[in-house]
Predict the structure.
Amino acid sequence: MSETKLRKMNEQNDRLKEQLEIQRIPVSDASKSLIDYCKSNHDTLVPSVWGSNKTQDPFAEQSGCTCCV
């Protein structure tokens, strides 16, 4: 039984060593990169943000009364 435990511990240790080798970047750099990407690329799912026709955008604010009775 102790050989099995030792083998599992060695496998876990190997997996942890592999994870240590993964390149990481600080969260501040990742968030800045994401903000820059969002500012430079148009979102086709929300066209009203980019000045397109707001009548085609279901998420744009509707003008006029849209009351349902």
